[in-house]
Amino acid sequence: MGRGKIEIRKIENSTNRQVTYSKRRNGIFKKAHELSVLCDAKVSLIMLSDTKKFHEYTSPSITTKKVMDDYQSAVGVDLWSTHYEKMQENLRRLKETNNKLRRDIRQRMGEDLNDLNWDNMCRLQEKIVDSLAIIRHRKYHVIKNQTDTYKKKVRNLKERHGNLLYDLEARSCEDPKYGIVDNARDYNSALALADGGLSNLYALRLQSSHPNLQDLRLA
Predict the structure, then answer these.
(1) What is the pLDDT of residues 66-106, one digit of tens each?
(2) Contact call for residues 150 and 156 (beta carbons, < 8 A)
(3) How many structural domains are present in the chain?
(4) Which of 114, 162, 165, 170 is buried deepest, with most CB atoms within 10 A?
């Protein structure tokens, strides 16, 4: 039985499409090689799949550039000049865009304003005002984040301060050698007792103006 004919249309399944492409690509390359050997023909074959994979076959002892040069001579066209002209046009557009951006930057810095008319000056002013609004919004956002971070740190310090007070009060109840005093007179009295021979007395003074415990003295 002979093989049935396959309808020539795009294969919708991507996996089957890639398998078919790989098989038929190898077959085309084989035929190109046979044509080059049997007929002494210069063959250059370039293939690009839908997945952007590049495949190329060129007859032995020649290059793709040599084939393209021979093609230009036979047809009478200059592919390289056309390509060069397109590159030059693209370079010209890029230079114009670059010059425009540089001019906009200078004008926003208050320079190169002599060629601007009234309408252009008004548009430039509107752009600067819009830019200042964006910068101001970003600035306030940064300040808010910094303020929130500072408040969070202060809140954490207050919590630590409260926990330390709670631990000290609990320890002073359990062990009389610890004592908390909240004014200078009581603190000096505690130090005097410590100097008088109570070697196991720990006196701690709290200052309302600072969240930390200060003036710890071991007697």
Answers:
(1) 888 887 788 777 777 777 888 999 999 999 999 999 988 88
(2) no
(3) 3
(4) 165
